């Protein structure tokens, strides 16, 4: 198990353009909603994924039921899920050859992260892009 370094995270944030945000919420007070809005403001296209909201519009994007129903290829899957719900999504991301797997703060799945790395994916775990972007990109 290897943690992503600051330079690796910076590289990911600079290369990624389209993100599937799994566990998106319509509730503006939820971290997933705040992070989706922030990432959009930073110029990323963020496609929300939540089976309960599938087909609805969220921050200008149509919500997808799962990764397999995404309308375009994505560069990163960002998971806002309870840890016990991550394995199936990680396996779906691996099968779809999504280049980057990002597990949010508190979402720690070492076995899933190892599977993703062995499949050639870049993995960031227990971090939040909304915190990493200002720290690594908008310094000083």
From TrEMBL:
SMART domains: CoA_binding (SM00881). Gene3D superfamilies: NAD(P)-binding Rossmann-like Domain. It comes from the Bacteria. Pfam families: CoA_binding_2 (PF13380). Residues 13-107 form the CoA-binding domain. This is CoA-binding domain-containing protein. It comes from Marinobacter psychrophilus.
